[in-house]
Protein backbone atom coordinates (compact mmCIF):
# COMPACT_ATOMS: atom_id res chain seq x y z
CA UNK A 1 0.00 0.00 0.00
CA UNK A 2 1.31 3.45 -0.88
CA UNK A 3 -0.04 6.34 1.12
CA UNK A 4 -1.20 9.24 -0.97
CA UNK A 5 -1.45 11.74 1.86
CA UNK A 6 0.05 12.42 5.24
CA UNK A 7 -1.25 10.37 8.12
CA UNK A 8 -0.54 12.36 11.23
CA UNK A 9 -0.96 11.00 14.70
CA UNK A 10 0.09 13.50 17.25
CA UNK A 11 -0.50 14.61 20.81
CA UNK A 12 -0.36 18.37 20.35
CA UNK A 13 0.84 19.50 23.75
CA UNK A 14 3.03 17.87 26.31
CA UNK A 15 0.59 15.25 27.55
CA UNK A 16 1.39 11.64 28.07
CA UNK A 17 -0.48 9.39 25.66
CA UNK A 18 -2.55 6.85 27.56
CA UNK A 19 -3.61 3.36 26.51
CA UNK A 20 -6.48 4.44 24.19
CA UNK A 21 -4.26 6.93 22.36
CA UNK A 22 -1.56 4.31 21.91
CA UNK A 23 -4.15 1.80 20.68
CA UNK A 24 -5.47 4.41 18.22
CA UNK A 25 -1.94 5.15 16.98
CA UNK A 26 -1.31 1.42 16.61
CA UNK A 27 -4.45 0.97 14.53
CA UNK A 28 -3.31 3.84 12.28
CA UNK A 29 0.07 2.18 11.75
CA UNK A 30 -1.21 -1.31 10.93
CA UNK A 31 -2.32 -0.70 7.32
CA UNK A 32 0.92 1.10 6.47
CA UNK A 33 3.30 -1.39 8.03
CA UNK A 34 1.83 -4.89 8.18
CA UNK A 35 3.60 -7.15 5.70
CA UNK A 36 6.15 -4.47 4.80
CA UNK A 37 9.92 -4.24 5.23
CA UNK A 38 12.15 -1.41 6.36
CA UNK A 39 14.52 -0.60 3.51
CA UNK A 40 16.53 1.92 5.52
CA UNK A 41 16.55 3.59 8.91
CA UNK A 42 17.87 7.11 9.58
CA UNK A 43 19.19 7.50 13.12
CA UNK A 44 19.68 11.17 13.88
CA UNK A 45 20.89 11.01 17.47
CA UNK A 46 22.15 8.23 19.77
CA UNK A 47 19.31 8.04 22.27
CA UNK A 48 15.99 9.12 23.72
CA UNK A 49 15.45 8.36 27.42
CA UNK A 50 17.74 5.38 26.88
CA UNK A 51 20.34 4.75 24.16
CA UNK A 52 19.01 3.31 20.92
CA UNK A 53 19.82 -0.42 20.73
CA UNK A 54 23.06 -1.17 18.92
CA UNK A 55 21.37 -3.31 16.27
CA UNK A 56 18.76 -0.72 15.36
CA UNK A 57 20.29 0.12 11.99
CA UNK A 58 20.68 -3.51 10.94
CA UNK A 59 18.45 -6.04 12.75
CA UNK A 60 15.08 -4.76 11.49
CA UNK A 61 16.31 -4.14 7.92
CA UNK A 62 14.70 -6.09 5.09
CA UNK A 63 12.67 -8.26 7.45
CA UNK A 64 8.91 -8.47 7.03
CA UNK A 65 6.75 -6.94 9.77
CA UNK A 66 4.39 -9.82 10.48
CA UNK A 67 2.42 -8.21 13.31
CA UNK A 68 1.88 -4.91 15.10
CA UNK A 69 0.55 -5.10 18.64
CA UNK A 70 0.44 -3.25 21.91
CA UNK A 71 1.62 -4.19 25.40
CA UNK A 72 0.64 -1.55 27.96
CA UNK A 73 1.71 1.68 26.27
CA UNK A 74 4.43 0.05 24.19
CA UNK A 75 3.96 -0.36 20.44
CA UNK A 76 5.54 -3.64 19.30
CA UNK A 77 6.45 -4.64 15.75
CA UNK A 78 7.17 -8.34 15.33
CA UNK A 79 9.45 -9.28 12.44
CA UNK A 80 9.50 -12.55 10.55
CA UNK A 81 12.98 -13.51 11.80
CA UNK A 82 12.00 -13.55 15.48
CA UNK A 83 12.98 -10.05 16.56
CA UNK A 84 10.62 -7.33 17.80
CA UNK A 85 10.96 -3.56 17.78
CA UNK A 86 9.55 -1.64 20.73
CA UNK A 87 8.48 2.01 20.60
CA UNK A 88 7.31 4.04 23.60
CA UNK A 89 6.18 7.61 22.97
CA UNK A 90 7.03 8.88 26.44
CA UNK A 91 5.43 12.21 27.19
CA UNK A 92 5.79 14.04 23.92
CA UNK A 93 6.44 11.42 21.24
CA UNK A 94 4.62 11.47 17.93
CA UNK A 95 4.75 9.26 14.89
CA UNK A 96 4.27 10.77 11.46
CA UNK A 97 3.47 8.45 8.59
CA UNK A 98 3.90 9.99 5.16
CA UNK A 99 4.36 8.88 1.62
CA UNK A 100 8.10 8.83 0.83
CA UNK A 101 7.34 10.55 -2.45
CA UNK A 102 6.39 13.77 -0.67
CA UNK A 103 10.03 14.63 0.08
CA UNK A 104 9.22 15.80 3.60
CA UNK A 105 12.14 17.77 5.06
CA UNK A 106 13.54 16.63 8.40
CA UNK A 107 11.25 17.85 11.18
CA UNK A 108 12.48 19.41 14.40
CA UNK A 109 13.25 16.69 16.95
CA UNK A 110 12.76 13.95 14.36
CA UNK A 111 15.19 11.45 15.82
CA UNK A 112 14.37 8.36 13.78
CA UNK A 113 12.99 7.78 10.30
CA UNK A 114 11.99 4.37 9.00
CA UNK A 115 11.58 3.90 5.23
CA UNK A 116 9.50 0.98 3.97
CA UNK A 117 9.44 -0.91 0.71
CA UNK A 118 5.86 0.21 0.06
CA UNK A 119 6.93 3.85 -0.01
CA UNK A 120 6.19 4.99 3.55
CA UNK A 121 8.28 7.36 5.62
CA UNK A 122 7.66 6.91 9.36
CA UNK A 123 9.20 9.64 11.49
CA UNK A 124 9.54 9.55 15.28
CA UNK A 125 9.48 13.07 16.72
CA UNK A 126 10.05 13.48 20.45
CA UNK A 127 11.01 16.97 21.72
CA UNK A 128 11.41 15.97 25.37
CA UNK A 129 12.96 12.58 24.63
CA UNK A 130 11.17 10.62 27.36
CA UNK A 131 10.31 7.98 24.78
CA UNK A 132 12.29 4.84 24.10
CA UNK A 133 13.05 2.44 21.29
CA UNK A 134 14.15 -1.12 21.96
CA UNK A 135 14.84 -4.42 20.24
CA UNK A 136 14.36 -7.85 21.70
CA UNK A 137 13.96 -11.43 20.59
CA UNK A 138 10.24 -12.06 20.48
CA UNK A 139 10.42 -15.35 22.37
CA UNK A 140 12.37 -13.62 25.17
CA UNK A 141 9.64 -11.04 25.75
CA UNK A 142 8.95 -12.16 29.31
CA UNK A 143 12.59 -11.50 30.26
CA UNK A 144 12.93 -8.17 28.43
CA UNK A 145 13.26 -5.54 31.20
CA UNK A 146 10.72 -2.94 29.99
CA UNK A 147 8.04 -5.63 29.62
CA UNK A 148 8.78 -8.29 32.23
CA UNK A 149 7.11 -6.66 35.24
CA UNK A 150 3.97 -5.46 33.49
CA UNK A 151 0.60 -6.39 34.94
CA UNK A 152 -2.73 -7.39 33.44
CA UNK A 153 -3.95 -5.92 30.16
CA UNK A 154 -7.31 -4.33 30.96
CA UNK A 155 -8.68 -5.03 27.48
CA UNK A 156 -7.67 -8.70 27.47
CA UNK A 157 -9.78 -11.71 28.41
CA UNK A 158 -7.51 -12.14 31.45
CA UNK A 159 -8.95 -9.01 33.06
CA UNK A 160 -11.77 -10.70 34.98
CA UNK A 161 -13.50 -9.76 38.22
CA UNK A 162 -11.78 -12.74 39.85
CA UNK A 163 -8.37 -11.44 38.78
CA UNK A 164 -9.14 -7.90 39.93
CA UNK A 165 -10.43 -9.30 43.20
CA UNK A 166 -7.25 -11.26 43.83
CA UNK A 167 -5.14 -8.17 43.03
CA UNK A 168 -7.12 -6.08 45.53
CA UNK A 169 -7.57 -8.65 48.29
CA UNK A 170 -3.98 -8.51 49.46
CA UNK A 171 -3.38 -4.77 49.69
CA UNK A 172 -4.49 -1.88 51.86
CA UNK A 173 -3.27 0.66 49.31
CA UNK A 174 -6.00 3.07 48.08
CA UNK A 175 -7.85 1.61 45.12
CA UNK A 176 -6.84 4.53 42.92
CA UNK A 177 -3.14 3.79 43.47
CA UNK A 178 -3.68 0.10 42.80
CA UNK A 179 -5.32 0.87 39.46
CA UNK A 180 -2.43 3.15 38.48
CA UNK A 181 0.23 0.58 39.43
CA UNK A 182 1.58 -0.79 36.13
CA UNK A 183 2.87 -3.93 37.85
CA UNK A 184 -0.73 -4.83 38.69
CA UNK A 185 -2.77 -3.49 35.77
CA UNK A 186 -1.23 -1.72 32.79
CA UNK A 187 -2.18 1.34 30.84
CA UNK A 188 -4.75 2.95 33.13
CA UNK A 189 -3.87 6.61 33.39
CA UNK A 190 -5.18 9.19 35.79
CA UNK A 191 -8.13 10.28 33.64
CA UNK A 192 -9.54 6.79 33.14
CA UNK A 193 -9.10 5.78 36.75
CA UNK A 194 -10.96 8.88 38.00
CA UNK A 195 -13.79 8.28 35.55
CA UNK A 196 -14.11 4.54 36.29
CA UNK A 197 -14.18 5.06 40.07
CA UNK A 198 -16.83 7.77 39.67
CA UNK A 199 -19.04 5.54 37.53
CA UNK A 200 -18.63 2.67 39.98
CA UNK A 201 -19.45 4.99 42.95
CA UNK A 202 -16.21 4.06 44.71
CA UNK A 203 -14.27 6.65 46.70
CA UNK A 204 -10.70 6.82 45.33
CA UNK A 205 -9.15 6.69 48.82
CA UNK A 206 -10.83 3.45 49.89
CA UNK A 207 -8.36 0.68 50.54
CA UNK A 208 -8.38 -1.95 47.83
CA UNK A 209 -9.10 -4.78 50.27
CA UNK A 210 -12.29 -3.05 51.47
CA UNK A 211 -14.04 -3.36 48.12
CA UNK A 212 -16.72 -6.02 47.76
CA UNK A 213 -16.76 -8.48 44.88
CA UNK A 214 -19.83 -6.73 43.50
CA UNK A 215 -18.11 -3.33 43.60
CA UNK A 216 -15.09 -4.78 41.84
CA UNK A 217 -17.34 -6.38 39.24
CA UNK A 218 -18.87 -2.96 38.42
CA UNK A 219 -15.47 -1.28 38.50
CA UNK A 220 -13.99 -3.80 36.08
CA UNK A 221 -16.91 -3.36 33.71
CA UNK A 222 -16.62 0.45 33.80
CA UNK A 223 -12.86 0.33 33.21
CA UNK A 224 -13.37 -1.79 30.11
CA UNK A 225 -16.27 0.38 28.87
CA UNK A 226 -14.36 3.62 29.35
CA UNK A 227 -11.27 2.40 27.53
CA UNK A 228 -13.34 1.02 24.66
CA UNK A 229 -15.33 4.28 24.41
CA UNK A 230 -12.11 6.29 24.36
CA UNK A 231 -10.67 4.12 21.60
CA UNK A 232 -13.92 4.42 19.64
CA UNK A 233 -13.73 8.20 20.06
CA UNK A 234 -10.22 8.13 18.62
CA UNK A 235 -8.20 8.38 21.82
CA UNK A 236 -8.76 10.71 24.49
CA UNK A 237 -6.50 13.01 26.02
CA UNK A 238 -8.68 15.02 23.98
CA UNK A 239 -7.95 18.61 23.66
CA UNK A 240 -4.35 17.55 23.27
CA UNK A 241 -4.87 14.97 20.67
CA UNK A 242 -5.47 15.04 16.96
CA UNK A 243 -6.17 11.94 14.98
CA UNK A 244 -5.49 10.89 11.47
CA UNK A 245 -8.01 13.20 9.83
CA UNK A 246 -6.69 16.19 11.78
CA UNK A 247 -9.80 16.46 13.97
CA UNK A 248 -9.40 16.72 17.74
CA UNK A 249 -10.30 13.61 19.74
CA UNK A 250 -13.88 13.70 21.02
CA UNK A 251 -13.52 11.81 24.28
CA UNK A 252 -13.04 14.93 26.38
CA UNK A 253 -16.76 15.56 26.12
CA UNK A 254 -17.31 12.22 27.81
CA UNK A 255 -15.32 13.12 30.91
CA UNK A 256 -17.71 13.32 33.83
CA UNK A 257 -15.37 14.30 36.66
CA UNK A 258 -11.83 14.68 35.35
CA UNK A 259 -10.72 18.32 35.38
CA UNK A 260 -14.22 19.43 36.44
CA UNK A 261 -13.49 20.66 39.97
CA UNK A 262 -16.35 22.82 41.30
CA UNK A 263 -18.86 21.79 38.65
CA UNK A 264 -22.14 20.14 39.71
CA UNK A 265 -21.85 16.36 39.79
CA UNK A 266 -23.52 15.00 36.64
CA UNK A 267 -24.88 12.06 38.62
CA UNK A 268 -26.56 13.90 41.50
CA UNK A 269 -27.23 17.14 39.58
CA UNK A 270 -30.92 16.31 39.05
CA UNK A 271 -31.37 16.62 42.83
CA UNK A 272 -32.23 20.02 44.28
CA UNK A 273 -28.82 20.38 45.97
CA UNK A 274 -26.27 18.44 43.96
CA UNK A 275 -22.76 17.98 45.21
CA UNK A 276 -19.89 19.55 43.34
CA UNK A 277 -16.88 17.75 41.96
CA UNK A 278 -13.90 17.94 44.29
CA UNK A 279 -10.22 17.58 43.67
CA UNK A 280 -7.74 16.02 46.07
CA UNK A 281 -4.14 14.93 45.76
CA UNK A 282 -3.14 11.27 45.92
CA UNK A 283 0.52 10.33 45.49
CA UNK A 284 1.18 13.70 43.92
CA UNK A 285 -1.59 13.46 41.33
CA UNK A 286 -5.01 15.10 41.18
CA UNK A 287 -8.03 12.95 41.85
CA UNK A 288 -11.50 14.20 40.90
CA UNK A 289 -14.56 12.74 42.59
CA UNK A 290 -18.06 13.47 43.94
CA UNK A 291 -18.18 13.29 47.76
CA UNK A 292 -21.89 12.41 47.64
CA UNK A 293 -21.78 9.63 45.05
CA UNK A 294 -18.42 8.22 46.14
CA UNK A 295 -18.59 7.82 49.90
CA UNK A 296 -15.51 6.77 51.80
ZN1 LIG B 1 -22.59 13.08 42.80
Cα distance spanning the termini: 54 Å
Overall CATH class of the largest domain = Alpha Beta
Alpha plus pi helix count: 6
> Helicity level, as a percent range?
10-25%
Number-wise, the strands total: 12
What amount of the residues lies in strands?
Answer: 15-25%
Structural Rg: 21 Å
Note the run of SSEs as H and E: EHEEEEEEEEHHHHHEEE
The name of the CATH superfamily of the largest domain reads MutM-like, N-terminal
The distinct bound ligands, ions and cofactors come out as: zinc ion
- What would the principal axes of the Cα set say about the shape? elongated
Helix/sheet category:
alpha+beta
Low-confidence stretches: 1-14, 236-249
The CATH architecture category of the largest domain equals: Alpha-Beta Barrel
Largest sheet composition? 6 strands, antiparallel
Structure commentary:
With 296 residues, this protein is of the alpha+beta class. The chain folds into 2 domains: 7-148, MutM-like, N-terminal (N-terminal domain of MutM-like DNA repair proteins, Alpha-Beta Barrel), CATH 3.20.190.10; 161-289, Orthogonal Bundle (Helicase, Ruva Protein, domain 3). 22% of the residues lie in helices and 23% in strands. It has 6 helices and 12 strands. The strands form 3 sheets. The chain has a 6-stranded antiparallel β-sheet, with helices on one face. A hairpin with a 2-residue loop joins strand 11 (278-282) and strand 12. Helix 1 crosses helix 6, helix 3 (161-169) crosses helix 6 (213-232) and helix 5 (190-199) packs across helix 6. The longest helix is centred in the last third of the chain and has 20 residues, at 213-232. The model is unreliable at 1-14 and 236-249 (pLDDT under 50). Bound molecules: zinc ion. Zinc ion (ZN) is lined by residues 265, 267-268, 275, 290, 292-293. Residues 265, 267-268, 275, 290, 292-293 line the site of zinc ion.
